[in-house]
Amino acid sequence: MKYCALLRPHANSRYQAEALKLARAELIALLAKSGCGTDVRCETRADTDWLAFEAGALDEGQLSLLCLAAHLYVLFEETEGALRPLRGQNAAYLGEDLPLVLKYKGKTNETFTAFLLNLALCASDFGPDEPLAVMDPMCGRGTTAFAALNRGWNALGFDQDAAAVDEGLKYFKRYLEYHRIKHTASDQSMTAGGKQAAVLHTFRFASTPEAYRDGDTRALTMAAIPGDRLGLVYRKPCCHLIVADLPYGVQHAPGGGRRRPSLEDMLYEVLPVWVELMHTGGAMALSFNVNTLRPEMVRGMMAEVGLDVSDGPGYEGLGHWVEQAITRDVAVGVRRF
Ligand SMILES: C[S@@+](CC[C@H](N)C(=O)[O-])C[C@H]1O[C@@H](n2cnc3c(N)ncnc32)[C@H](O)[C@@H]1O
Q1: Where would a tag sit more exposed on the chain, N or C end, judged by fewer CB atoms within 10 A?
Q2: For residue 23, what are the domain limits?
Q3: Does the C-beta of 328 come closer than 6 Å to ligand 1?
């Protein structure tokens, strides 16, 4: 059977060409995860970008996995030249606009964030239907966390920028209240060596009042804490996937007021901590600016901390132009033991 995916357009035409490459890689990774072939072709119809692939009849599980695709608008089945719409992206657990509403300088694009989540998921040993826990240790105001919550997963977001974390938490509280989503909020002070290491702010909620009443809830935890200190707060694995858009070295210099190590030094410090926080079988997807962090160095560092760096179709050739001074790449690694 032939399937065709109509892709979401992007406002910036230069990025659009790059998005097609990412969309193809993402679909290959999702097809591989769903046990289908990975031969994906780019097609142009009515001056629009499409991706096409052949597969047997897709079951419900395969369809819902493929419809996580960040770049997908509508998936069609093609029979004798006629297109039959199958479905669009999966419904959001809380609300499609959750990761979209907040706009700010330095925000990671929501589609790209969903793409990173997909690569991490596909590389991992976990399936999308388990309520996974996703950690973004450089979460800014929480784009990754909000995208993860919308999949019905749990999310942990940390950043050294206390103001960004606070903004993210305030926004989420307003969102829950505005949409009358039943929830509780709690704070937990974490100490290390007799000193306060962080205050964990947690919201617990559910997509429907019935699910909330039945205890079928999800959680968002956010805290202001630098990436290298997370081991003081969590002493055992707390997440299945780690997704982070690392500072580009353009707008977000690392170190804040504390000190200013190079991005490379910073990565050396945080990676051994992060890998310990991921369950065995979990995967990490990191994006970074190749003008400030060399791709082979990032992958080398991931391998040094024991990650099995993903390569091959879906995981390589992901370098893409974003804007002047920023060419982004993605590295994915799996914790095997
Ligand atoms: C590219 S931004 C990520 C933006 C985020 N994905 C969003 O959409 O809001 C990089 C983030 O890394 C944070 N950061 C830089 N160095 C850090 C460190 N050592 N520990 C924790 N966060 C750090 C910055 O404060 C910034 O929020």
Answers
A1: C
A2: 2-88
A3: no
